[in-house]
Amino acid sequence: MADRLQLSLGVRWLPNIRARGRLVTKLMRLAVYSVCLGAPAQAHAQRLDDVTPATRLRLLLPDSLRQVPLASRKHFVTGQFVRATADSVYLQMSGAAPFGVARAGVPMWVSRGASRGHSALAAGAALGLLSAAVVYADGEQGRYHQTSDAMVGGAIGLGVGVIVGAASPWERWRRLRSP
User: Fold this and answer.
1) End-to-end Cα, the chain, rounded Å
2) Which regions in the chain score pLDDT beneath 50?
3) What is the pTM of this model?
């Protein structure tokens, strides 16, 4: 009866319940620590009035036609903020004259810059958790070294992710509130 229940639900059971409980506890601690590390944030511009000229600004502009199949009808435009009026925003892209965009219904983001540390931490955590989960799920259930194999895989993923994130940091954005 138990074999049929196990097959119908597709659940695999570990013979050592305590080991599984300790792994879940460790993963929960890791998740809580990750959330706590990202919690404090420095105050930045909340409205367009707070943005200073020459700051990078990203707009999501609607388009009437799709550029590629199954893509959204919107495009990101990034440039340096020049000025804002009551109904429009003026941006300057590199090597071009400033142009205006209507503010109504256009979401805007202000650049927070590219941080090697933040990119390394985010890429390392994501790749480490992904590789640990893949190694753990791929291993034979009940094998003595399955948990240690997952930890080694996670550590390797963490190291590779930190190197990749530090070598190519990405720009972080903060969304501005609508007026």
Assistant:
1) 63
2) 1-11, 14, 42
3) 0.58
